[in-house]
């Protein structure tokens, strides 16, 4: 089946290197907090959806889905919805998971904060460990908000070192 558009061009080695450096430093920052500073606490700082955010904010920096409003807003909206879905529907986990992701997508559209990893953030609030569930709405603050802000700070620094990269394209 033939599509309407052509495949994007190859990415140059310099772009790949900057993407790698950004992802390494961004994930390192939240992982260090999680594994070295918060290891003896019940707090969590790193969640799987941050890996997908790293792809966008370090590897696809001109995408509308990678912009700060989408990164931070999408994760926050989705975290709130995920926690609410778990708390209201945990007796039926299949329903809680489905409602969390579908509602997160709808609300991200409404709020113009669509960030695909947000769907995972909502789902993690439902299917995550007992440690995640114990956080309740604090999950929205840590790991979600603080982690997204740390990754954004790294993106602002790394993505603007090279004269060929500019981030963000827009704030809101």
Task: Give the helices and strands, then pairings.
Elements: H1 13-37, H2 49-59, H3 68-89, H4 93-110, H5 117-127, H6 130-135, H7 138-158
Helix pairs in contact: 1-2, 1-7, 2-5, 2-7, 3-4, 3-5, 3-7, 4-5
What does this molecule look like?
This protein has 7 helices and no strands. By secondary structure, the protein is an all-alpha fold. It has one domain (13-158). The longest helix has 25 residues, at 13-37. 40% of the residues are buried. The mean pLDDT is 96.
Please tag this protein with its features.
172 residues, globular, mainly alpha
Structural class, from secondary structure content? mainly alpha
Major beta-sheet overview = none
Helical proportion, percent range:
55-70%
Low-pLDDT stretches are: none
Radius of gyration: 17 Å
The H/E string reads: HHHHHHH
Distance between the termini: 37 Å
Q: Would you report the number of β strands?
A: 0
Shape: globular
Mean pLDDT: 96
How many domains make up the 3D coordinates? 1
In terms of DSSP E residues, the strand content is under 5%
How many alpha or pi helices?
7
């Amino acid at each position: 089946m033939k599509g309407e558009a052509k495949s994007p061009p190859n990415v140059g080695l310099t772009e790949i290197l900057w993407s790698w450096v950004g992802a390494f430093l961004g994930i390192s920052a939240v992982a260090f907090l999680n594994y070295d500073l918060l290891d003896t606490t019940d707090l969590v700082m790193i969640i799987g959806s941050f890996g997908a955010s790293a792809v966008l904010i370090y590897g696809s920096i001109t995408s509308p889905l990678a912009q700060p409003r989408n990164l931070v807003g999408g994760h926050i909206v989705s975290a709130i919805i995920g926690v609410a879905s778990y708390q209201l529907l945990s007796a039926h986990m299949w329903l809680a998971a489905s409602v969390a992701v579908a509602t997160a997508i709808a609300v991200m559209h409404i709020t113009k904060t669509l960030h695909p990893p947000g769907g995972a953030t909502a789902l993690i609030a439902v299917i995550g460990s007992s440690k995640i569930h114990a956080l309740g709405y604090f999950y929205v603050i840590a790991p979600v908000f603080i982690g997204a802000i740390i990754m954004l700070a790294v993106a602002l620094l790394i993505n603007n070192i090279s004269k060929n990269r500019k981030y963000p394209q827009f704030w809101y």
